[in-house]
Amino acid sequence: MLIEQPPLLYRLLFPECIWRIKRRAGKPVVFLTFDDGPIPEQTPWVLDLLDRYGIKATFFMVGDNVRKYPELYEEVKRRGHSYGNHTMHHMQGMKVKSVRYLRDVAEADNLIRSSLFRPPHGLLRWKQAAALKEHFNIVMYDLVTRDYSKKLTADEVFANVRRYARNGSIIVFHDSIKSGDRMREALPKSIEWLLEQGYEFLPLQM
Fold first, then answer.
1. Rounded to whole angstroms, how far apart are CA atoms 187 and 206?
2. For the chain, which terminal residue's Cβ has fewer other Cβ atoms within 10 angstroms, N or C?
3. Any domain includes 122
4. What is the pTM of this model?
5. Full domain range(s) for residue 176
């Protein structure tokens, strides 16, 4: 659970970040998000699946992938999804100096142009978070499906959604090579289950 749903203490360490957006009236909502794309091996498939269900999601894109596949970046926008910055080189903030990290984010911003930012692996230094909040809405997550993990099966990824999803959850899947067939099998099952539970899907718009 420390991975799939970050504990309250960790959330309290970064109060400037957005972890969950709970609706207080009406249908419960979830915010489906995808990290690490866009790439031709996964992103078009995800976009077609979302179209099939009439769902809008949010894509946190790696700047270098946007540089390599600008047509996919434009396609995400054309289909009405929201999108955000996931650094230029999928850089983990805890492993590099803040000056280098913030420069990497700024390089990605030159391509992506979004007010939304999600740190890779959900890890930041406090100094980095303080600087980023001046320019971005920092979006973390309420549920990581772990579709990237080779230790999990697609059924276990789907089980994480069933176990941890709740009203206001920001849910993370990955349109990446690493997520492979686990994402392709678990994502439609998760969407159908969430719809059966009465959830409405919304993109992040801030």
1. 25
2. N
3. yes
4. 0.96
5. 8-201
Residue ranges of E strands in 90-139: 116-117, 137-138
Question: In this structure, is residue 1 part of a structural domain?
Answer: no
pLDDT band of 2, cuts 50, 70, 90: low
Examine residue 190 and state whether it is found in any structural domain, yes or no: yes
C-alpha distance across the termini of the chain, in Å: 28
DSSP character for 120? Answer: G
Tell me whether residue 2 is in a domain. no
Residues 140-160, mean pLDDT to the nearest whole number: 97
197/72 Cα distance (integer angstroms)? 32
- For the chain, the domain total comes to 1
In whole angstroms, give the CA distance from residue 114 to residue 183: 25
pLDDT digits (tens, 9 = 90+) for 85-101: 999 999 999 999 999 99
CA 25 to CA 12: how far, in whole Å?
25
Distance CA 156, CA 45 (A): 21
SS3 sequence, the chain? Answer: CCCCCCCHHHHHHCCCCECECCCCCCCCEEEEEEECCCCCCCHHHHHHHHHHHCCCCEEEECHHHHHHCHHHHHHHHHCCCEEEECCCCCCCHHHCCHHHHHHHHHHHHHHHCCCEECCHHHCCCHHHHHHHCCCCEEECCCEECCCCCCCCCHHHHHHHHHHHCCCCEEEEEECCCCCHHHHHHHHHHHHHHHHHCCCEECCCCC
CATH of the domain at 57: 3.20.20.370
